[in-house]
TrEMBL record:
Main location: membrane
Annotated RDD domain residues: 19-142
Naturally occurring in which organism (per UniProt): Cobetia amphilecti
Name this protein carries in UniProt: RDD family protein
Domain of life: Bacteria
Length: 154
């Protein structure tokens, strides 16, 4: 990577990477769901404290929770292409050229993933019929999820 090149366009090493299957992706989703739940619980406690001990159900607070969720996913994806759950399952999001996704691609991916889940997971199951094993969020954002090779032990 050239000095001063945009961080989000860093090229990843695609050698040995293959498309991720549905079960491996869902494993990463479950891991990340626990992390996101913990984040939302902490923010919920803060919201209750700020609201004088009452549940905060305002649209502003709910919007802040959504922004916090995107900050988690978008930050991880645009920095390294992986969340903690994805690291555990050796998954990475990248462009077809092997770069980390841009923040815009991360936002599109985040929104479409929510729609995929809202459609009873149909967007994820879609990859079973796609010749490149892409889900709706992969197609919409111009990214792909790959399985990283196991590290070599020496």
């Amino acid at each position: 990577m050239a000095r001063g090149a945009p961080h989000s366009r860093r090229r990843l090493d695609p050698q040995g990477a293959r498309p991720a299957g549905l079960m491996r992706r869902l494993g990463g989703v479950v891991y990340d769901a626990f992390l996101v739940m913990a984040l939302l619980i902490v923010l919920g406690f803060i919201g209750v404290a700020v609201n004088g001990g009452e549940a905060n159900q305002s649209p502003l607070f709910r919007s802040l929770l959504l922004v916090a969720m995107f900050a988690f996913f978008g930050g991880c994806w645009s920095r390294s292409g992986m969340t903690l759950g994805m690291q555990a399952w050796r998954l990475r999001i990248e462009t077809p050229q092997g770069h980390v996704p841009t923040l815009q691609q991360c936002l599109i991916r985040f929104v479409v993933a929510g729609l995929s889940l809202g459609a009873c997971g149909l967007g994820y199951v879609w990859q079973l019929w796609d010749p490149e094993q892409r889900s709706w969020q992969d197609i919409a954002s111009g990214t792909r999820v790959v399985v990283l090779p196991k590290p070599r032990r020496e």
